[in-house]
Specification:
Blueprint: H1 2-13, H2 17-38, H3 42-65, H4 71-96, H5 103-126, E1 134-136, H6 140-156, H7 164-181, E2 186-188, H8 201-216, H9 218-254
Antiparallel strand pairs: 1-2
Helix pairs in contact: 2-3, 2-4, 3-4, 3-6, 4-5, 4-6, 5-7, 6-7, 6-9, 8-9
Transmembrane segments: 15-35, 104-122, 134-153, 165-182, 194-214, 220-239
Keywords: Lipid biosynthesis, Lipid metabolism, Membrane, Phospholipid biosynthesis, Phospholipid metabolism, Transferase, Transmembrane, Transmembrane helix
Family: Belongs to the CDP-alcohol phosphatidyltransferase class-I family.
Amino acid sequence: MGDLRLREEKLRRGIYLLPNAFTTAALFAGFYAIVQAMNDRFEAAAIAIFAAMVLDGMDGRVARLTNTQSAFGEQYDSLSDMTSFGVAPALVIYEWSLHGLGRWGWLAAFVYVAGAALRLARFNTNIAVVDKRYFQGLPSPAAAAMVAGFVWLAVDNKFPMQDGLLAWTAFALTLYAGVSMVSNAPFFSGKSFALGRSVPFWGILLVVAVFVFVSSDPPLVLFGLFVIYGLSGWVQWLWRWNRVRRLQQERRIDA
């Protein structure tokens, strides 16, 4: 009986290979983005951040599908996210454009990094008490996709780097992403969508259409989609605020 209990404890303390392999791959992609940015290969750096985003989305789903969730995996995933979606995007956009703004450039990059760290810390502490349908604040992968998407779009279309407007646009976008991560704006999580349930035939056609749409111009389409998502939480927040205000006014009238 004692040997069985000891064996069970060892299994609980063990590290599940499959989901943590995806987390490690996401961490590698984030580190690769940093290395490529230091070598002035900004398009490769931006693509690596998007690859990290895909891998990060897979590790949690793999863990749930295979019933291999663990406390170690959760902590490892957060540390990986901090590198891939916190430090990497800030360094990429700083090396690409923000360094030309002097201290304003590195301050904007730091605001983004601090926002990502605070966002992840709050997510870990509030995971059991928030509405599963919505994220509290912009998720760090989406914020990273906005920043990396802008770099990819600008490099792919050869935007003029001499234009000061480009650097200040990058500055504003970086600040917006950093502040949005620590906001209370509700962003749709997509966790209510179950991959295991059956869908109509047109659902498969819709997936194919999305792939075709994204592949038509990946930098433009991906950046546009994540900008829309990055604004959606604030639209939802304003709609809720306006609804609460109307209800309060109606109660005052009724009283």
